[in-house]
Fold these 2 entries.
Entry 1:
Amino acid sequence: MLSLLTDHPLVCALVLILIDLSLWHLLSASGSQWKLVVRLLVFALFSMVLFNAGMNPLQPAPFADNVPLHLAATGLQIGWWLFGARTLTVLIGAVMMQRVGHTGRLLQDLLGAVIFLIAVIAALAYVLELPVKGVLATSGALAIIVGLALQSTLSDVFSGIVLNTTKPYQLDDWISIDGMEGRVTDIDWRATRLQTAQGSMAVIPNSLAAKAKIINFSRPIDIFGISISLQLSPHVRPSTVIEALERAMQGCRQLLSKPAPNVSLKSSNSSGVEYEISGFVESMDQKRMVRNQLYDLAFRQLQASGVSLLSSVESNAPAGLSRPRALLDSSSIFSGLSEEEKDAFCANMTLQTFRAGELILPAGEVSDHLLIVESGVVSVELNRGGIKFESGRMGPGEVIGEGGILSNTSLPADFSAKTYCSVYRLEKDYLKPYLDARQDIGDAMKALLDYRLNKAQTLTQETPQVAQKRGFLQWLRRRA
């Protein structure tokens, strides 16, 4: 092996370069550490071959009497500088990726360009013995010309370095840049690429992003803020509105309890008052669903308090409707009743109130009456493996106790008041003749009962425990 290196150093050096290029492409990306080790080893062997053959990269090539040999040695010495620059760049890149990850790629590329420029100048000065000062002066003038021509591009490049250093956002973050909202898919030399909620791609120059107002929805990583605004009449007492919106807020289980959601009065003038519900959810995917749910809950709780959203169009609902009648009109179960039947129902509905935490209908109890939630929030709790958990919340217009009315069955759920609740009660003896005469009411209540029973069965099923794999060492410990 040593004799081969000493007898044919130029051939061995060329073979080492080819081996390095081949192994670099053959090794997979997952073996990046092995790729770095192989490159360092090959560069060390390449350096040893050159120095043993008398080819010092800090001096002109020997073999001046043999022109082909002299040119080959010159090429290998220049290659040593480029090979060293590439090895150093890869080493710096590996260290930076461990510390700063993908966001340091732009700075890594810039350092690599500087290292290669230094290697080229060193090769010109030491190997070719060219006047480096003249080359630098020429390259400096050329750099000024190119810099003026590429002024906007260079602004994007240096702005990209600033963004990667300060890290206002990273890959996969949801951000807003001057109102343009989307998920960061790439940050390169020139621009930041966002995938918008509509699925399109937005390309924002780094120079613009560095000057713009940036909102990062993904920081901190475990909470995402949401808010909805509502316009109401200025003649409604604010405390009435705020209490109704707080009940709507408590009716949404997806809102995080910490940081606590809140209701605030944002602005007021003669044309209307603006209220805002704001809170946090645990994932970006929930934002749209929770916003829609909050609007629906706010509408129902405000309606239960006798407050309507501000609108330029007058409501078609008859004026002076009682609250029981309004509940029947909005109910999907009883909305098909005639006007006379609704009036008769209203006359037989009695109002009950429950304090927060008070049990409305316990699990397993067959109800002899139907309850319609008039206002407030009702919490539904199930039991799984002896542990109670909240499976849902109910609001105005929803019914409780349909199982006892239909088939003398009960639900395995506790219905309790989450807030102060008002409910209207209809006795089974009064409802039964209507159920026998009106199939549409019975079908609607049966569909609701089936849905609740299936959901309760699904949520209370215990997940099977996966048997842990035990190895030989665990077996020895048990036997000891």
Note: The chain has four domains: 2-149, 165-216, 224-304, 324-460.
Entry 2:
Amino acid sequence: MNYQTDVCIIGAGPGGALLAYLLAKQNISTILIERSDELGKEFRGEHLNEDGEMILKKHHIFEEMESLGLLRMSRVEYWKDGHVFKTIESELGHAGIHVPQHHLLQSINNQASIHPSYKLMLGTKVTELMQNEKGQYTGIKAQQKGRGEIIVESKIIIGADGRYSTVRKLAHIKNNIHNHGYDLLWAKIPAPANWEPSIKFALVEQQQVALFSQAKGFIQIGWNIKKGSYTSLRKQSVQPFLDQLILPFPQLKESMEQNLHSWKDFILLSVYSSHCDTWVKSGLAIIGDAAHTMTPTGAYGMNAAIMDADVLSQILPNLLSQGSLKAGNLKVFENARRKTVEDLQAQQVVTEDSFMEKFTNSLKTEKENLTLY
């Protein structure tokens, strides 16, 4: 089956879904393709910062998302041996917002579906990018569950399909990987009674542990481990590893004992950042993690994708109307976003490299203050 559209977006995560909605709202025919059978597959980076919040409010998505459920975290806390020794209160009234991905994508899709120029295709896996004789991208071939091969002819392809982007690979865009010296173990457990929504940090065996409050009464644990150490770690008993977390956060003991029993209860994230030599080719652009993977530090990833979508939604309509979708014209989008993204990536490195020193100095200062009194 063949389809024709102005814009074909691959990947219905926050960036791709938002871009599809913003274009469809401007009466630009848009097909959004997602390989999963449903929207809102759970993922780790579900925290909205000030930039992401501002954009979702600007486009009147935040209100519906809030009605479905989100959680504002009141502050950032630093813990040791069961006690808070440093607290940072945000001037915004919250230190971040947890938004279940399903709630975010449902809110975007509900509003996008109102527009006849929007079409969502689930269960569809891209297999090939099509080009004309001049090398400009003109559409995609894909396999759709229950239908076999489909062809989507489009004026531009947008790759919003994440860190392992198929679009990026098929377009032969070089992705430069930067390791940060650590990987991350994720786990999710129910929050104890009277747990105040917050972001909590601790230092365990010289590695950062972060706890993020989540909507519906859960806590997400993000535990840094030395790069490549998981293979040897999982050969050992998990219990001594878990016991280390109980020292700074003894209130988690009961929930951990009930919900964390083996290494299978953790999800390993290989941590790296990346930058591509280019984000655009004639008839094609990549956004979000496909163009610039970030580490979990500062929870910038989802918010950067949202910002990419917002900027590109303002640039594409004019280029489409002019029929000027060559790489040189699309470079306007990349130039508008690249420096901001690279600055955030540099900021992540500084934050990661200085965490242990700042944590130790803050603890030392607190002890000195207690001695004075």
Note: The chain has two domains: 2-44+100-178+272-353, 47-98+181-270.
